[in-house]
Amino acid sequence: MSKENCENIQDNMSELYSALKSGEVKREDAAELANIAGKWLKARALDLAEREFDLYLEDRQRNVLPANEMRQITQDDIFPVN
After folding, report:
1. Residues 26/58, Cβ–Cβ less than 8 Å
2. Is-contact 41 6, C-beta < 8 A?
3. Distance separating alpha carbons of residues 36 and 57, to the nearest angstrom
4. What is the spatial distance between Cα 32 and Cα 21, in angstroms, rounded to a whole number?
5. CA-CA distance, 60 to 54, in Å (whole number)?
6. CA–CA dist 67, 6 (Å, integer)
7. Helix crossing, 3-22 with 27-59: angle to 10°?
8. How far apart are the C-alpha atoms of 49 and 55, rounded to whole Å?
9. Distance CA 73, CA 49 (A)
10. What is the rounded CA–CA span in Å between residue 76 and residue 23?
11. Are 62 and 33 in contact (CB under 8 A)?
12. pLDDT tens digits for the chain (82 residues)?
């Protein structure tokens, strides 16, 4: 998933919110679409976390991860700059 895809989702969710406010979209439909988008984004973030963790373990030859070397995944990990 690229940053562009996420920006498209953000734009689509903004349009969906506007349509919901104006009454063009039913609340149930908007909730379902937002739920699907959220699950898709969460799945992508989990895929990236798993990949980073696997690469780290490969680099460490499957040694135990020291707690002081763990780091949070940043937005740059999810949306790398090309």
Report:
1. no
2. yes
3. 32
4. 16
5. 10
6. 31
7. 160
8. 10
9. 7
10. 37
11. no
12. 566 777 788 888 889 889 989 999 999 998 998 888 888 888 888 888 888 887 777 766 555 556 666 666 677 767 777 6
Which pLDDT value is given to residue 59?
67
How many Å separate Cα 36 from the centre of its chain? 12
Q: Which of 18, 25, 72, 27 is nearest to 45 (CA)?
A: 72
32 token code pair: 């379902």
Rounded Cα–Cα distance for residues 3 and 1 (Å): 7
Annotate 11-40 with b (16+ C-beta within 10 A) or e (fewer): eeeeebeeebeeeebeeeebeeeeeebeee
Q: What are phi and psi of 3, to 5 degrees?
A: -60, -35
